[in-house]
Write a structure and sequence with these properties.
Largest sheet: 4 strands, antiparallel
Number of helices: 4
CATH superfamily: Creatinase/methionine aminopeptidase superfamily
Radius of gyration: 17 Å
Number of strands: 16
Order of helices and strands: HHEEEEEHHEEEEEEEEEEE
Length: 278
């Protein structure tokens, strides 16, 4: 079932959830450096959600059919991990890149979902370029969002930019509708043909979260049934925002003071950053 919010209280609820999710990333940013473990980062985020925000981490004990419960508050995907990396005793070292994926549930039951890439020390030229191109993919997808546009427009913009850079788009995982349910319709594919797919309507809320590989798009799933890696062990990157389709464009719900500004490739985009004083 798709989320289509028409009531202002629901839109405000989603704005709050998005801001809080992004503020978890703001809070943890100073700690993301060489020598810390992914498990410690999980603990920092979980404590901030529980004790400061009074939110609940959606991933913790999340259990889709056929999966074991996810055992942590956040996902930490390092280097060749595409998504759903489980925090643990992995120590970050200079040259690593890591994606931290945060989803909070507010007291009123709204979900906010966002992720960012972090570089540890001085990453390689390849890692920096992959992260930047993936960030641009996210925003080129966001630039397609407006009433009357099609889901295929989003996927096409992302796929073209990634492939023109020599990278590949993961097909098995995608963005999703979100509201008072974690994952729901529509599925937001990060590849596709323009003018195809479901039409976007004002009030829809969903994520765009491209997963881009430096090598081939093929994946392999680890025995823990959650951690997904590149089959060829190439680097992978991901960025994510939760969005609202507005009457005249798009609102980025997962926006906070620490959010990365849109890249130059979308200069002039008519987007509205939630929770911003700008």
């Amino acid at each position: 079932m798709m989320t289509l919010f028409t009531e202002e209280k629901d839109i405000q609820g989603m704005r709050e959830a998005g801001r809080l999710a992004s503020e978890v990333l703001d809070h943890v940013t100073p700690f993301v450096k060489a020598g810390i473990s992914t498990g410690e980062l999980d603990g920092i985020c979980h404590s901030y959600m529980r004790d400061v925000q009074k939110t609940v981490p959606a991933p913790l004990n999340y259990q889709p059919p056929g999966y074991p419960p996810f055992p942590a508050a956040i996902c930490t995907s390092v280097n060749d991990v595409i998504c759903h990396g489980i925090p643990g005793n992995k120590i970050l070292k200079s040259g690593d890149v890591v994606n931290l994926d945060i989803t909070v549930i507010t007291a009123d039951g709204y979900y906010g979902d966002t992720s960012r890439m972090f570089s540890i020390g001085e990453p390689s030229v390849l890692a920096k370029r992959l992260s930047q191109i993936t960030f641009e993919c996210l925003w080129l997808g966001i630039a397609q969002v407006k009433p009357g546009a099609r889901l295929g427009d989003i996927g096409h913009a992302i796929q073209m930019h990634a492939e023109q850079a020599g990278y590949s788009v993961v097909r098995e995982y995608c963005g999703h509708g979100i509201g008072k349910v974690f994952h729901q319709d529509p599925q937001i594919l990060h590849y596709g043909r323009p003018g195809t797919g479901e039409k976007l309507n004002t009030g829809m809320t969903f994520t765009i979260e491209p997963m881009i590989n430096a090598g081939r798009r093929d994946i392999r799933t680890m025995p823990d049934q959650w951690t997904v890696k590149t089959k060829d062990r190439s680097l992978s990157a991901q960025w994510e925002h939760t969005l609202l389709v507005t009457e005249d464009g798009v609102e980025v719900l997962t926006w906070s003071l620490g959010s990365n500004l849109p890249p130059d490739c979308v200069k002039g985009l008519n987007f509205r950053p939630s929770n911003s004083k700008a």
